[in-house]
Each structure stands twice: as C-alpha cells, then as structure tokens.
C-alpha cells in the first residue's frame, strides 16, 4: 500500500512525533511505500519528502495556518497528485498543518484515519485543564477559552483557539475522517463527550519497537527516574517537592522550560540529579536499573510512551491518576498510582514502591505481549484495508 503519514514535526520532539516515526519504520519494514507530510522546522530530520512541506509557522502564518492556509493546501495537493496514496494517516496536525488536509484527501476518495494524541479536537488548548484542574467547559461553553485566556494566558491566542475549534467542529471533522484512533479509553470517552460518534472511534494503544528494549538484564539500583519534558504540566514541581525529603535519589532525564528553575532551586539537593536531554541509548541503562519510573503528570496524558518503554524493559511505573495513565498500570503488579498533584500521596507511594516486591521479568514479558509492534501492525492493516478505496 501507499500511505501518507502526517505530523506537524518530523523529529523526536514528543510522543506524537516518536509514534509517527516508529510507524513509518514499521510500515516500511513490511514493504509499504510511505510518504511524510510535515512542516519545515530547523530540528527536523532529513526526509526525501521535505520539498512538499509548508514553511515554518511564524509571523502572519500564526493567524492563517490553524484554519487551512493556501500554502498548506497547495503543498498537500501536490503530494497527493505525485504520490497517489491509498490511505492518509493523520497524527498531530492541528494548528501548524490543520485538518484541511483530511478534507483534501477525502474529496479525492482517499481513506483517512487519525491517531489522536491529545484532547485538542474538544479543547482549544490541548489539555482539558484549567488552573491545574480537569475542565470540559469548552464542550458546552466554547467562549470559555477566551474568557479564561486558556492558551498561554494570551487573549489573541485564545481568540484564535476559539475560532479554530469553531471551524473544525466534531461534525465537520467526522465528515472527512473514516476512523479516529485514540490510544486510550480515556481519550475515546472524552471525544464522545465532545460530540464525536462512538461508531467512528476505535482505541488503538500505542506500540513500541520491542527490539530496542532487548539487551542483557541489568541489576536494579537504588534510584528512581523521571523521563520526559521538564514542564509544569508534567508535575515536576510536585515530584521534586516530594523527592527532596526522601533518602533515595531521583534522576530527571529531559529538557524543558522548567529545568533552569528546578536546577537553581535544588542545586544543593543530594537526592535529585538533573541529567538534561539524553538519547535512548544513553538513558536506557538508567531506566533498566531504576527501581521504578515515575510519571507525575498534572494534565490529561493520553497514552504516554514513557510508561510503555519503562514496562518493556522491566521497570515498574508510579503514575499520576489522571488521563490514560491508570489504564497502563496494574496496581501492585506493574506499578502503582497516586493522586495527581498531591505531594503527600506521591511521597507515600514512592516509599511504598521501594517497599514492594515486583516481578521485573514478568513486567517485561507482559509489556512485550501488550505493546507488540507486530500485533499493532496487523490490527492497523485490517483498518487500512477496510477504508482504502483502491
């Protein structure tokens, strides 16, 4: 088959990008032709398809891109003309590319599926949170995003977000997409609450390249680890407050806007070590040898790859009870959960994780079965064949 994969960035920026690039590799391994549609961006990896990509979204493009700009339409139309795909598979496309590309493909009779990585279709600011609390006000009161300036505290940005959601309504998106594929039940339910038809939704949990998780068994050390973006919504302030008074060492792997602040605040702490950005091969031994991985998110995480990666190398997970995180953790077997944003509960659960006896090999075996890339591929091909018009 000939498949176009669309995602706004083409480098390993976050889970959406990693999923897109992993899917490209998986499809190509099975002999399919894959074209990439993305946005020009300095950090992108090289691609033979980059001549088809619209320019970076800067300047006045911020006002036009979310609604389907002329440039995006021209670039994607040219790719459709030249590549002639059987299927268009969308990932994270809102704002920088916009759902207009779904409409362009649908108008030509091309099957369209969409892996949704966040709550953007129902929430203009992506997270369904306000002031650290779950919020679905925009479902029934669309102007809430403007009233509360939910997008970076900016009135102009929130106004754009309001009109973007108004244009790309659930009914309009559903007309051009054959199937929405949220990776969690949590996100599926959020979409249905936001007006999407349950008959057009199929949960498809993220997969992982299990080959990269294989290797010699590593003995567990005394540290625990966080891996991901160092940002407030990821719960790093809460995690550091809990960790500073404990005897065990927390290793923080990742970069982000909050990192300089935390480095200053905890520069004298013996119990917190910031490693900065690291490649998979660099931090894999730290993850393997960790007693557990902690994901302290304070926003609606969907189906975080860090949980999947951790379990796949036999490391249990302590996860915030929010979004789709609890769906990935079997209490007392593959990890534990705690109340998101609750320092006291997090501190207690860190101690419990150290006191608990986990079957590390059993965690890895179960993850291998659950997150197999081959099992995902077989399910995906059934979907592709069912919506392909060729």
What's a concise summary of this model?
By secondary structure, the chain is an alpha/beta fold. It contains 16 helices and 13 strands. The protein has helices at residues 15-29, 61-64, 70-83, 100-107, 137-140, 144-147, 155-167, 170-176, 185-193, 236-243, 259-265, 280-289, 305-312, 343-355, 360-370, 373-387; strands at 2-6, 33-37, 87-90, 111-114, 129-130, 133-134, 179-180, 224-227, 250-253, 272-276, 293-295, 317-320, 335-338.
What does this molecule look like?
- With 390 residues, this protein is α/β, with parallel strands linked by helices.
- It folds into two domains: 2-121 and 168-207 and 372-387, Rossmann fold; 210-370, Rossmann fold (3-Layer(aba) Sandwich), CATH 3.40.50.
- 38% of the residues lie in helices and 12% in strands.
- It is built from 16 helices and 13 strands.
- The protein has helices spanning 15-29, 61-64, 70-83, 100-107, 137-140, 144-147, 155-167, 170-176, 185-193, 236-243, 259-265, 280-289, 305-312, 343-355, 360-370, 373-387; strands spanning 2-6, 33-37, 87-90, 111-114, 129-130, 133-134, 179-180, 224-227, 250-253, 272-276, 293-295, 317-320, 335-338.
- Strands 2-1-3-4-7 form a five-stranded parallel sheet, with helices on both faces. Strands 8-9-10 form a three-stranded parallel sheet, covered by helices on one side.
- The longest helix has 15 residues, at 15-29.
- The radius of gyration is 21 Å and the shape is globular.
- The N and C termini lie close together (9 Å).
Would you spell out the secondary-structure blueprint of this structure?
Elements: E1 2-6, H1 15-29, E2 33-37, H2 61-64, H3 70-83, E3 87-90, H4 100-107, E4 111-114, E5 129-130, E6 133-134, H5 137-140, H6 144-147, H7 155-167, H8 170-176, E7 179-180, H9 185-193, E8 224-227, H10 236-243, E9 250-253, H11 259-265, E10 272-276, H12 280-289, E11 293-295, H13 305-312, E12 317-320, E13 335-338, H14 343-355, H15 360-370, H16 373-387
Parallel strand pairs: 1-2, 1-3, 3-4, 4-7, 8-9, 9-10, 11-12, 12-13
Antiparallel strand pairs: 5-6
Helix pairs in contact: 3-4, 10-14
């Amino acid at each position: 088959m000939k498949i176009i994969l669309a995602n706004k960035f083409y480098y390993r920026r976050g889970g959406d990008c990693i999923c897109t690039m992993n899917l490209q590799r998986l499809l190509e391994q099975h002999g399919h032709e894959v074209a990439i549609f993305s946005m020009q961006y300095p950090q992108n990896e090289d691609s033979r398809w980059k001549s088809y990509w619209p320019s970076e979204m800067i300047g006045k493009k911020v006002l036009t891109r979310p609604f389907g700009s002329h440039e995006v339409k021209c670039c994607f139309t040219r790719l459709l003309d030249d590549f002639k795909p059987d299927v268009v598979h969308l990932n994270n496309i809102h704002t920088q590319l916009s759902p207009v590309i779904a409409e362009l493909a649908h108008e030509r009779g091309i099957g369209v599926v969409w892996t949704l990585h966040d709550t953007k279709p129902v929430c203009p600011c992506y997270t369904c949170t306000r002031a650290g609390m779950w919020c679905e006000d925009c479902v029934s009161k669309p102007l809430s995003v403007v009233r509360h300036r939910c997008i970076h505290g900016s009135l102009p940005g929130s106004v754009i977000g309001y009109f973007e959601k108004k244009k790309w309504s659930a009914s309009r998106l559903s007309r051009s997409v054959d199937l929405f594929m949220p990776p969690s039940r949590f996100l599926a339910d959020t979409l249905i609450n936001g007006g999407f038809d349950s008959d057009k939704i199929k949960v498809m949990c993220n997969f992982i390249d299990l080959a990269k998780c294989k290797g010699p068994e590593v003995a567990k050390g005394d540290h625990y680890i966080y891996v991901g973006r160092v940002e407030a919504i990821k719960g790093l302030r809460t995690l550091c407050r809990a960790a500073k008074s404990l005897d065990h060492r927390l290793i923080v792997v990742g970069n982000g806007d909050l990192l300089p602040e935390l480095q200053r605040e905890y520069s004298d702490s013996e119990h917190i070590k910031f490693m900065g950005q690291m490649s998979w091969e660099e931090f894999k031994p730290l993850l393997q040898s960790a007693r557990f991985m902690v994901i302290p998110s304070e926003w609606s995480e969907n189906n975080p790859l860090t949980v999947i990666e951790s379990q796949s190398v036999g490391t249990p997970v302590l996860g915030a009870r929010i979004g789709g995180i609890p769906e990935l953790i079997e209490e007392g077997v593959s990890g534990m959960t705690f109340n998101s944003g609750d320092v006291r509960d997090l501190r207690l659960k860190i101690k419990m994780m150290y006191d608990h006896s986990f079957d590390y090999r059993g965690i890895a075996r179960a993850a291998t079965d659950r997150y197999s890339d081959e099992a995902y591929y077989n399910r995906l091909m059934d979907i592709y064949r069912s919506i392909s018009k060729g």
